[in-house]
Amino acid sequence: MNLSNKKVIICGGGLAGCFLAILLKKSFPKTIIKVWEREEKEEESGLGYTIQPPVKHKLESLDLARSTQLFHKDLIYWDKIHIEAKGVTSSFDFIPTFGVTRSNLLAYLRNFAEELGALFQYNRSITPEKIENLRQSCDLLIAAEGVYSPIRQYYKEELQTQQTCGKTFYIFAIKMLP
Ligand SMILES: Cc1cc2nc3c(=O)[nH]c(=O)nc-3n(C[C@H](O)[C@H](O)[C@H](O)COP(=O)(O)OP(=O)(O)OC[C@H]3O[C@@H](n4cnc5c(N)ncnc54)[C@H](O)[C@@H]3O)c2cc1C
After folding, report:
1. SS3 103
2. Which residues contact 151 (CB under 8 A, 6 or more apart)?
3. Tell me, what's the pLDDT at 49?
């Protein structure tokens, strides 16, 4: 699909929305890209992410200097894990992994996309009443507003989307060693 000179609206300026805005702007610099984001630009949300080599390499291939800055900002790296339980410590080698806070990762992606020319509109929440007008006002409307996407819900017959909820047991406990 050739998107040159077209107008694209991305709903949701999270990880997927920002990353897509960057990739689109790199491939089609003349495309008008607007990103509608519910939060304020600097709003602190979420915890952090573990980033492994394939994702790190992808970020570096987009802009080496910028991604190096990102990883130096947080500077958490590990390639070994020690689990302490009942007085016994077990040690394992682990895939080389970087830790980055969600706020730093988002700031990095949003600034990058904005510098490439994507237009962010913060504090704009997509509601079902706005969807049809938004769709009419652009050539391509992209739903990137996360797991509870109102757009995927709105077009669920057309898109045949399905959502399954389940329980996930999630433990995240890290102690930094010197
Ligand atoms: C506890 C936890 C830990 C995780 N750890 C990792 C990890 O270490 N590594 C990893 O790769 N992944 C991790 N993930 C998964 C990762 O968070 C998701 O895959 C990723 O955030 C999905 O990106 P997204 O852009 O689709 O959604 P999000 O990042 O959730 O972004 C959605 C955006 O849309 C905005 N939005 C929502 N509704 C609206 C609306 N109505 N109108 C306008 N904007 C709206 C939100 O404000 C948000 O900015 C983790 C997830 C959880 C819950």
Report:
1. helix
2. 11, 126, 131, 141, 143, 145
3. 85
* Domain chopping of the chain, boundaries: 7-159
The rounded Cα 54 to chain-centroid distance in angstroms is: 15
Query: Which of ligand 1's atoms lies nearest the C-alpha of 17?
Result: 25
Residue 19 neighbours by CB under 8 Å, 6+ apart: 109
Which residues on neighbouring strands pair with residue 143, listed in sequence order?
A: 11
| Chain centre distance of CA 109 | 8
**146 CA distance to ligand 1 middle (Å):** 6
Q: pLDDT value at position 73?
A: 72
Pairing label, strands 119-121, 76-85: unpaired
CATH topology of domain 7-159: FAD/NAD(P)-binding domain (3.50.50)
Question: Where is pLDDT greater, at 8 or 85?
Answer: 8
Choice from 97, 100, 145 to test ligand 1 binding pocket (greatest atom count within 8 A of CB)? 145
